[in-house]
Amino acid sequence: xxxxxxxxxxxxxxxxxxxxxxxxxxxxxxxxxxxxxxxxxxxxxxxxxxxxxxxxxxxxxxxxxxxxxxxxxxxxxxxxxxxxxxxxxxxxxxxxxxxxxxxxxxxxxxxxxxxxxxxxxxxxxxxxxxxxxxxxxxxxxxxxxxxxxxxxxxxxxxxxxxxxxxxxxxxxxxxxxxxxxxxxxxxxxxxxxxxxxxxxxxxxxxxxxxxxxxxxxxxxxxxxxxxxxxxxxxxxxxxxxxxxxxxxxxxxxxxxxxxxxxxxxxxxxxxxxxxxxxxxxxxxxxxxxxxxxxxxxxxxxxxxxxxxxxxxxxxxxxxxxxxxxxxxxxxxxxxxxxxxxxxxxxxxxxxxxxxxxxxxxxxxxxxxxxxxxxxxxxxxxxxxxxxxxxxxxxxxxxxxxxxxxxxxxxxxxxxxxxxxxxxxxxxxxxxxxxxxxxxxxxxxxxxxxxxxxxxxxxxxxxxxxxxxxxxxxxxxxxxxxxxxxxxxxxxxxxxxxxxxxxxxxxxxxxxxxxxxxxxxxxxxxxxx
Length: 528
Fold this sequence. Notes:
The chain is of the alpha+beta class. The chain folds into three domains: 2-98 and 105-272, 3-Layer(aba) Sandwich (Rossmann fold); 279-377, Translation factors (Elongation Factor Tu (Ef-tu), domain 3, Beta Barrel); 390-526, Alpha-Beta Plaits. 25% of the residues lie in helices and 30% in strands. It has 13 helices and 33 strands. An eight-stranded antiparallel beta sheet has the order 28-25-27-26-30-31-29-32, with helices on one face. A seven-stranded mixed beta sheet has the order 2-3-1-4-5-11-6, with helices on both faces. The protein has a six-stranded antiparallel beta sheet with strand order 18-17-23-14-15-22, covered by helices on one side. β12 (279-280) and β13 (285-286) form a beta hairpin. α4 packs parallel to α5 and α11 (407-419) crosses α12. The radius of gyration is 25 Å and the shape is globular. Residues 40-51 and 64-70 have low confidence and may be disordered.
């Protein structure tokens, strides 16, 4: 039992979140390099280069140089077993990111030093706050022109409503970037990485080094002395309990591309975060050290291996130990299932595993029975984790296949991609799948849907944009749809689980529906 508990204690599971182009994927790869998981970093922007970021495996990601699906990666570092969840940074993929954050115990927020807090960061941050999980901040690209560090901290505090505690402090920025001051160890880590070098040289110097002023320059040295005094007097005190509950964010300054400040950040992060957290169920809390196995599905991905046309369900283990081939209860269907072909993934490469523990993220073969949010547990345990909400899409298209002879492939492709959560499918009530209404959070998801239908299912599709902007689930299923009083531009539809919804062109139509139908209950999301 001691070994089993020790395995869980050494696990750290975190998500990396950011606005596009802040350097999230670059930081992820530096972590993997330190853990020996990869030997050479790719470049998400080097489209002419054959190397791509390891965590961006889909073809469309390689073409566009962005992350559009969440990746799960595991590596070892200094006796820690680390599970990284690399989330999509693109603004169109907030829902997939949300689901991924449900599987994490903490989050690393990457901020561009010149741009500060951006729109997407705010959205993702709200999810972290809702989950009460620790948030660590890495302010990236200090070797480029940057905002004042005081302004950056002030913006984080005002925009996100969280306290900040700088663990280190930058000395200059851009061409004048000289390094950082490590507050805990009271030493300077100097930066020397200009001239397009991809690896910065670091030297550790005590704060009282005699020739420090000569090394930094008179102005930067004087500014640093003032900054150190001000931080000690005016800043927040470090409070680990506040960090653990997402009330205070430790902040680190560095440059992921040049590798400067990444390893000190990783080492501090691992010491300040905790082992896997307990998880809420419908009416209880599951302790990760409970010997009984439990997990939930947070992502489904079909066709990760084109040669096998398979479908993988990503699960977050919440308690106990997983063993290859074990039988578990699939709570939603009431069936016993054998968890076969368990694997850990490094982007498109896979490694079959024999065992895993609470905190780990693994992929299991899905014969088509799992849905996002499903609970798996040891026979007789009777666990039901809180569902993962399905949010209302904002853009809609009427979709049909170009070749009517390919109806079977069309239905299969659209259904599987919807089950992964990349799109949502709706139909007019009592109609077939000859044509469907596809709803998405952002336009890019239509591009991904079209690309995947053509390349994975060999189906060309025709899409026509619809005028609807809002969708609402009907929360009282006993209501008679035929008797609803609605505006002429409101459409009644149902989702793939048979639940009824209304599509609206504007907010005025929503108000009309609520005012003219006594007792009608509408919701912006569904909990499965």
